[in-house]
Amino acid sequence: MRHPLVTLCALAGATLLASGCSSGSSPSAGQAASAAASPVAAKDPAEVGADELGQVPVLMYHQLTAKPASVYDRTPADFRAELERLAREKYVPVTARDFQTGNIDIPAGTHPVVLTFDDSTNSQVSLDQNGAPAKDTAIAILAETAKKYPAFKPVATFFVNADAFSATGSARALTWLKEHGHEVGNHTDRHQNLRSLDQAGATKAIAGGQQAIVKAAPGTRVTSLALPFGAMPQSAGVAARGTGYRYDGVYLVGANPSASPFDKAFTPAAIPRIRSAGPKDADAEFGSSRWLDKLAAGKNWYVSDGNPKTVAFPTGSQDRVAPAFAKRALPY
Fold first, then answer.
1. Which structural domains are found in the chain, ordered by start?
2. Whole-model pTM?
3. Which among 24, 70, 221, 292 could disulfide-bond with 248, CB atoms 3.0 to 4.6 Å apart, if both were Cys?
4. How many CA atoms does the CB half-sphere of 246 hold within 13 Å?
5. Of 151, 142, 147, 86, which Cα lies nearest the Cα of 117?
6. Angle subtended by helix axes 76-88 and 288-298, to nearest 10
7. Is 311:50 a contact under the CB 8 Å cutoff?
């Protein structure tokens, strides 16, 4: 079943975008410099069937546990199997920060995927005394998958609350994530339902999460927010902009792939995510297994040409390119 707030969030997010509250479509000078410095391994777009206006799965995870108790839980074996499927199907993880700003630098013929984790649970991040990831945690399984499939980048975005990753400690865990190429995003300080709060309360909850991250790991650049329960604040603009925070991407709970950040249809103020789920799980129609099947069968996924400076796509899609990326357009 689609989350009851998904439709509401999407509508509110559209309002936020229209009000000019999000700047996610335009790459920063730093990102442009990074792209310029990247080694270009581009191919003829037609040779790889490049379509950088295709859909991108943004996958959502919560708890890894041997005994799932809700539709948001997955076993470590489930998670490992899903990552290996992604690797076999030539998906390459990128962070939410890079995705939402169009800073996608992956090899020709591959597809971006955004791996996101909510609630800062110990099953996601836990370190032993030597600083190594604990067995069967998300970060350990990510590293194991990358070792088995070298083209698979072990990077993800962790949307955290205050007092994140209690078994390891916020400061140690967040610092480790930053040092290993992961992104730390905001999930409010106490996982509040922002829809139930007034504007001042919603702003306080978001700012509190931002402050907790920066206090635990000074210098952390937080540019992404995941809405607890997928609930958009009553004043939608508060999600992306407020005193003490400014986000390029705001993420919902579900329940379908996202448009490419280069597509006019992309809504950085309300980016949909897909709950990780098996093909026979509850509400499997909206889960990751079914959506990955559909993307592979329909071939309407994002396919990279290997050049981060260009946006390649079949010529018939020219009118879909977002104005901010028009100069990078490469129809073929």
1. 6-45+56-301 (3.20.20.370)
2. 0.88
3. 24
4. 5
5. 142
6. 10
7. no
Which tokens sit at 24? Answer: 């996610």
Q: Are 115 and 94 in contact (CB under 8 A)?
A: no
- Look-up of token digits 């649970």: 121
Instruction: Map tokens 């946006």 to a residue.
Output: 311
Of 303, 209, 240, 227, the closest CA to residue 25 belongs to 240
pLDDT tens string, the chain, 332 residues long: the values are 333 333 333 333 333 333 333 333 334 333 333 344 444 457 899 999 999 999 999 999 999 999 999 999 999 999 999 999 999 999 999 999 999 999 999 999 999 999 999 999 999 999 999 999 999 999 999 999 999 999 999 999 999 999 999 999 999 999 999 999 999 999 999 999 999 999 999 999 999 999 999 999 999 999 999 999 999 999 999 999 999 999 999 999 989 999 999 999 999 999 999 999 999 998 999 999 999 999 999 989 999 999 999 999 999 999 999 999 999 999 99
d(C-alpha 74, C-alpha 62), whole Å: 8
Tokens 């140690």 appear where?
172
Burial class (CB in 10 A: 0-12, 13-18, 19+), 96: buried
Are 232 and 8 in contact, with CB atoms under 8 Å apart? Answer: yes
Which three-class secondary structure state does DSSP give residue 158? strand
